[in-house]
Amino acid sequence: MLSNKEKLEYDVLMIIKEAEGRPMGCGSIGIKLQAMGHSLSEATVGRILRDMDFAGLTEKAGFRGRRLSDSGNERLSELDGKNRRLKWGEELMAAVQGHTREQLLEVLIARRVIESELAYLAAQNSKPDEVRALKSVLARQRSVLDSGDGAAAEDVEFHNLIAQMARNRVLAAAVSLIRQDTQLSPVLEYIRLHVRSLVYVDHKKIAENIESGNGEGARAAMIEHINNLISDGEKYWETIEQRWK
Q: Distance (Å, rounded) from C-alpha 33 to C-alpha 51?
């Protein structure tokens, strides 16, 4: 989570932003801050606002109060993004607990066998509207990752679409059983983020081969993708082990 200082700064900026251009006075801002749980005197709020004026985050509108500057909007977005990333990281750290190296490896090896064949079949059997849907998920995943958020939901949807496109109910049921741990995808995403790797690049290569009807290419791209997940997992556990030495 944000530090106490950052949280206070975020709340002040958000209060002013929510006024939608209407100048906010020190007293009004102080009342709203108290409602948010901040115990501050009006004098303290005034000092905070003067510091924000000096930093260029707020602009005085005569005696009527303050408005948010362009720099203030940028700072608010920066704090919002940081807060979401920190919160996501905490949630994923909690999710990763209980998943051992051996458990993750067993799941990934099984996925490599089954999902590589699903990718091959998807390249052979996919329909144009399904390919468009796959590319749409891929674009959404890129957007979510660029914003700093986790894209675990898009990861699940991407792989589920490929299983559907393959048109083999036995293989689809097998991979669904393997992937039934709903926390596994965010765990893997956390691991890849921790070792600074991106699942999007792998997914893009898989989608391109499926779109072109290249079954062998799709199979190879999926194997490479799962191998990268395995490699990232190994790097993550090595980092954790070194930290505890």
A: 17
| pLDDT tens by residue, 192-211 | 666 666 788 999 999 999 99
Distance CA 125, CA 116 (A): 14
Query: For residues 227 and 155, what is the distance between their CA atoms, to the nearest angstrom?
Result: 16
Whether 1 shows a pLDDT value over 90: the answer reads no
- Grouping H, G, I as helix, E, B as strand and the rest as coil, residue 132 is helix
Q: What residue ranges define each of the domains in the chain, with the CATH number in brackets?
A: 4-83 (1.10.10.10), 98-243 (1.20.120.530)
pLDDT at 133: 96
Q: SS3 for 60?
A: strand
* Kind and range of the H or E run holding 67: strand 66-68
The token pair at 141 is 């995943």
Q: What is the pTM of this model?
A: 0.59
**Alpha carbon distance 152, 150 (integer Å):** 6
- The sign one gets for the Cα dihedral 179, 185, 187, 193 is positive
Mean pLDDT, to the nearest integer, of 19-34?
88
